[in-house]
Amino acid sequence: MHTNIEERACELAEYIIENKATVRAAAKQFGISKSTVHKDLTERLKTVNPPLYGRVRELLDINKAERHIRGGMATKRKYKGEQAD
């Protein structure tokens, strides 16, 4: 568990940018909740590292715009009996 919240926010942002990951994937990787990831990236990171926040914000906006597509694909896999990622 990270003791420095600002450091964790920066690490989360870097992970998401490098891996083009979703909030859910980052939460799983770091062993924290999606709510914590979202709060770190949208609130804390903005004050700690504004340039990094701008880069991760772009990716979060793209993920938000595409989430309905990923959800539809997951539902399709579910009813075809395939395993999720």
Kindly summarize this structure in a few lines.
The chain is mainly alpha-helical and 85 residues long. Helix content is 81%, strand content 0%.
SSE arrangement:
Layout: H1 5-19, H2 23-30, H3 34-48, H4 50-80
Helix pairs in contact: 1-3, 1-4, 2-3, 3-4
Features:
85 residues, mainly alpha, 4 helices, 81% helix
Describe the structure.
The protein is mostly helical and 85 residues long. The chain has one domain (5-80). 81% of the residues lie in helices and 0% in strands. It contains four helices and no strands. The longest helix is centred in the C-terminal third of the chain and has 31 residues, at 50-80. The two termini are 25 Å apart.
| Regions with little confidence, pLDDT below 50 for 5+ residues | none
What count of helical segments does DSSP give? 4
Q: Which radius of gyration do the C-alpha atoms yield? A: 14 Å
Question: What does the oligomeric state look like here?
Answer: single chain
| General shape | elongated
| Structural classification | mainly alpha
**How would a textbook summarize the main sheet?**
none
> How much is the average pLDDT?
88
* Count of domains: 1
Termini separation: 25 Å
* SSE run: HHHH
Strand composition percent: under 5%
Helix content: over 70%
Strand elements, count: 0
